Every structure is written in structure tokens, then in C-alpha cells.
Amino acid sequence: MNDLTRNSDRLIQEARMVRDDNRSGGRHRRESIGQGSRRIKRANWVKRIRNVLIAVFAIWVAGGIAGAILNGIGFIGVMSVLLATVIAIAVFSSFPKVKVPGRADISASAAKGDARQLVGRTELWLESQRPALPPPAAKIVADMGVQLDALGMQLERVPADHPATREVRQLVGETLPDMIDSYRGIPDHLRREERAGATPDRQLTEGLGKISKEIDHVTRQLAEGSLDDLAVKHRYLDYKYGDPADPVAADPAKEG
Questions:
Q1: Domain residue spans of the chain
Q2: For the whole model, what pTM was predicted?
Q3: How far, in Å, are 120, 183, 226, 251 from residue 114 at the CA level?
Q4: Residue 121 burial (CB count, 10 A)
């Protein structure tokens, strides 16, 4: 009786997860979560199109040369060229596949301090992990793409030895993937069982939420220099040219 109740509870919970997943846009899980991964996919598509064009061009040139040498290739030759063209398009439009980076690739990018590469690889890796995560955690991962894009822009403007840069390397290159890997190592039927006051699903969601907040915090911290610089320039313009909304400030001769 207890087993039946437990199984019924599990089925109800899974049904709720599917419902929540659909509400949170689960059908869009294959979409890029950020500009970094989108850039990598775009580069892959450009490479595919280039390969298709090269292959088709080579086939038709070879057919033309054969026709010139043989004084025509006939119906069979024409059909062979068309068939080879179709095969080339089918093959080269599907390959090469976008390589999903592994943990070692993310760690290597973090160690090199290449912000653009780190962000792109992390986003691709997160996209590959997202289907295995509970809906609330998947939603955080989807939103994290925008945060990683903003963080990457800031990292490109600061020295590699900046304290915040080292913190980001550990946070994005180690802590984030470690947490998801630990969750995925838990059998599915245990992920919704409460232990020490919380389920693994909840622990993962809360942990990702904290990482998300920390990424936002570091991004704001790195952006403070640019914000301060902008404020100084704004005050300088006010001092030199006055406030256009204030006729006295805009034209000091009118004062008095």
C-alpha cells in the first residue's frame, strides 16, 4: 500500500513538472540561451553553407570537364551530377555538428582567461544540460544566458589578473558545472525525495539562483568603473555646456 501511494505521488509530481515545464516554455529548450552560444552556432552554419557551396561547385565543374573531354556526358551523366549534388547538400548541410563542450573545455577556457570563449562554451554546455533539469532550474539556466553575455562584455574590458576575473573563473568554470554534475549523478527517483529538509531538485534550484545572483553582482561590480566614468563625463558636459533644460545654465548671460 505504501509503495502504491509512493508511486502515485511520484506520477503526480512528474505530471506537475511536465505542466510547469510547458508553462515555462519547455518547447523552446533547444533555443540558444545567449549570444555566446548563438555566435558559435551561427559560425557553424556559415561553415556548413561554405562546404555545401564548395562541394556543389566542385561537382558541377567536374561534370563540365567530363562533358568537355567526353563530348557530352549524356542523360546518365546529368542524373549522376544531380544525384551527387543532392547527396552533397544533404551531407554538408548536416555536418559538421556543433560540438558540445565538456567540463574540461570549460575549465580550459576559464584557465586561459578567454572571456568570449568561456561564455560561449558555458552557454552551449548549459543548453545541453537543461533538458535534464527540473523546470524551475531550467528557467534559471535560460535566464543565465543573458547574464553570461553581460558578464563576458565586462570581462573583456578588465585585466586577466583582476580579482573579480579570478572569482568568475571559479564560479563559472568550476562551481556551476560541479553543481549540475552532482545533481545529474543522483538517480531520477531520488531527486524529489526530501533529505535534510530539502529535495535535490530544490537544492539545485536554490544553488543556481545563488550563482545567478553572484554573476549579476560581479557584472555590476565590474561595470562600476564604466558607470563612474560616464557620470564624470556627464558632469563635465553639464559644467561646460549647461543643462539644456535650464535656460539660465544653458546661457549664463541671462542670469540676473
A1: 43-92, 101-240
A2: 0.71
A3: 10, 27, 21, 49
A4: 26
